Predict the structure.
Amino acid sequence: MELRGDKVVLRPVTDDDAEILEGVVREPEVAAWWSPPDSYEDMLAVIFEGEVIGAVQFDEETDSEFRHASIDIFLTAGCHGKGLGADTVRTLARWLVQDRGHHRLTIDPAAANTAAIRCYSKIGFKPVGVMRAYERDHCTGAWRDGLLMDLLADELA
């Protein structure tokens, strides 16, 4: 599978990508919001100008009564603020809607991650509500709030 956005390409993570991604999640600007995962094998590498700059993952709820998909993303700090996160999420969202048939997508940034929230809002995600003490900050051990955001297929920008 390979998905092409306006600026990025998404493809399955390879063994060679894992070391790069491990470095990305340890960058202070990324580590503030992401803990190193146990594995990168279920993720898609985000490629910009031939280089791996991060990863994105999705999860699908297949129960027909609750069918939807969720998205998570991280990019190297040097690529923040350049529209690459929005292009990545939009590219994956289009595939999830058009090819996988999802009518609703969710994303759940930390409530304090204003840059991520601004990025997802540009694509059309809307705040649903605050999930109190939703995730543990792996750096401090404290619980922090998450913001549940969703996007309906016909709202995809």
Notes: The chain has four helices and eight strands. The longest strand covers residues 51-61.
